[in-house]
Amino acid sequence: MLDLKDKLVVALDVNTLKEVRKLVNTLRGKVKFYKITNRLLAQYGPKVLQIVRKMGGKVFLDLKFHDIPNTVQYSCYSSTSSGSSIMLQSICSYLPAGLKENQGFKNIIQAQYPVFMITVHTDAGVEGLRSAVKGAKERAEELHIDRPLIVGVTLLTSEKPEADALGIVLERAHWVKEAGLDGVVCSALEARKVREAFGNEFIIVTPGIRPKGYSANDQKRVTTAREAIDAGANYIVVGRPILDAKDPLKAIKDLSD
Ligand code: C5P
């Protein structure tokens, strides 16, 4: 059995806060990380991040920024503190130097700043990717917090390019490295080569994960959790196999087999 506790990210691809609460509650103690996209954010705003955080989850904010560098920069700037209270944000801006090392303060921050990872699309280009790091770093410094991990989306796992997928992913991973991001989102089918080329510090996030016998849905390049982790994935992202299951805990067990 695989221990997925520090690796599994559940994609919160649902439509209502009621469904969010129900799912996070069901998965409490089993799942640490939750991925939130515009599907929930456009409807409910940062409240959805607050709910997940209050229930003990860490948030992966997957908004795949792809825009001019200035917009990418300030989208990452805002995402760095998304879902935290405005009051705490302003208090943090006026902190005396040294207080950020105080354990009590660290605990408050831990409970308030929910974003542990964000995404930028590598189509934003090296300049766009650099501006992502700049925006997140600037905000994190202002608030005396760690900046979230920033990963670049290479190819969607629902895409099956006619040209060589591995070549595309490796080229984009180079842009990511050059721009100072923390890693990439790619399919597990490319993960091993990415790990070999970029070393152990590089973060690899792999969607397109299915337990044996489950539907691939619209995903074109799928693997099992074990294959992804063996290939070097730090995080595996799973949505429908868990969301559509009658018993989501059983689906997690099936993933771990
Ligand atoms: O339901 P399923 O497990 O296919 O969900 C995968 C999740 O990962 C979705 O939220 C999708 O947006 C996301 N994703 C992906 N492929 C990428 C990047 C993100 O499927 N390359």
Can you walk through the features of this model?
The protein has 257 residues and is α/β, with parallel strands linked by helices. The protein has a single domain, classed as TIM Barrel. Helix content is 46%, strand content 15%. The chain has helices at residues 17-27, 38-44, 47-54, 69-79, 86-93, 103-112, 125-143, 165-179, 188-198, 225-230, 240-243, 248-256; strands at 8-11, 33-36, 58-65, 115-121, 149-153, 183-185, 203-206, 235-238. The chain has an eight-stranded parallel β-barrel, surrounded by six helices. β4, α7 and β5 (149-153) form a beta-alpha-beta unit. α4 (69-79) runs parallel beside α7 and α7 (125-143) crosses α8 (165-179). The longest helix has 19 residues, at 125-143. The mean pLDDT is 92. It binds cytidine-5'-monophosphate (C5P).
